[in-house]
Amino acid sequence: MYVYSSKVVWTEGRRGKLTCGNGFKAVFSAPPEFQGEAGPLTPEDAFVASVNMSFTLMFLKVAEQEKLDIRAFECNCNGIMDRVAPQMAFKRIVLHPRAVLGSDEDIPKAERCMDLAEKLSPVRNSVKPKVVLEFKMEIDKKRSPDRKAREPGE
Amino acid sequence: MYVYSSKVVWTEGRRGKLTCGNGFKAVFSAPPEFQGEAGPLTPEDAFVASVNMSFTLMFLKVAEQEKLDIRAFECNCNGIMDRVAPQMAFKRIVLHPRAVLGSDEDIPKAERCMDLAEKLSPVRNSVKPKVVLEFKMEIDKKRSPDRKAREPGE
């Protein structure tokens, strides 16, 4: 069993300070469309980001176990929030991972790793909205295989 | 309908960079117990924090509509993650809000606002684990009523 904690302190208006259990601190606010402001972390962004980060880290773990040669990885994620009468809630989350692999032969293995990561991610298993995975694979033929991590497009 | 987005880029090991739609940026990692490190934002902390921030902002909104005299507000939140066979998932989230109010008469109204905020919070309505609310109210008899926000214990 693992416990993750946070503390939120209201400072003014629709804004406050967040302290997370792992030591991370940030100012947060409501998003601009709900009387908040641009710039700070918002609850809605944090929710979508938690799904994105959890999937990404689970993919990296599974890929390491499967000895997959990943040269780069990034993931965009969109969360669609709408009225689920009578309340507002997230209805759908779409993950768009993009992996740069060492060779064509890695593609089927990478696809299995992505499907597995989506099933095993603890945050993904804790959210109600439907989660959709739309992945893209590319082959890095020019780079040396000892470069472990690089931003795609770098 | 609202769309919230984030982008995650793997940098090395169990670590990467996060950019959220509202402009917020952070380094993230797995938590130390999952081959990560202390300090950065983690997916698990972000998930729990999103519930905490969403509840807090909804409480502030409802309280404003109800003309509740809140002098200070903070909220601790614990998320319990465990194996929900076969995967790991959050099983329970406990919110511990603490409000400092202008007078004793505000207590019943504040209780209603907290219950309502818990029901209306969009992130709370998007998570699977049971959410428990354990609130505490205090009366601020010494402070002037024009001070709108202050950290409890300040």
Which word captures the global form of chain A?
A: elongated
Largest interface in this structure = A-B, 81 and 81 residues
Span of the ends, CA to CA of chain A: 39 Å
**How many E-type strands of chain A?**
7
Mean pLDDT of chain A: 93
Poorly predicted spans of chain A: none
> Hey, roughly how much beta strand do the residues of chain A contain?
35-45%
What proportion of the residues of chain A is helical, as a percent range? 10-25%
Q: Kindly provide the radius of gyration of chain A, computed on alpha-carbon positions and rounded to a whole number of angstroms.
A: 18 Å
Mind describing the biggest β-sheet of chain A?
A: 4 strands, mixed
Assembly of the depicted chains: homodimer
Main structural class of chain A: alpha/beta
| Strand/helix succession of chain A | EEEHEEHEE
Helix count from the secondary structure assignment of chain A: 2
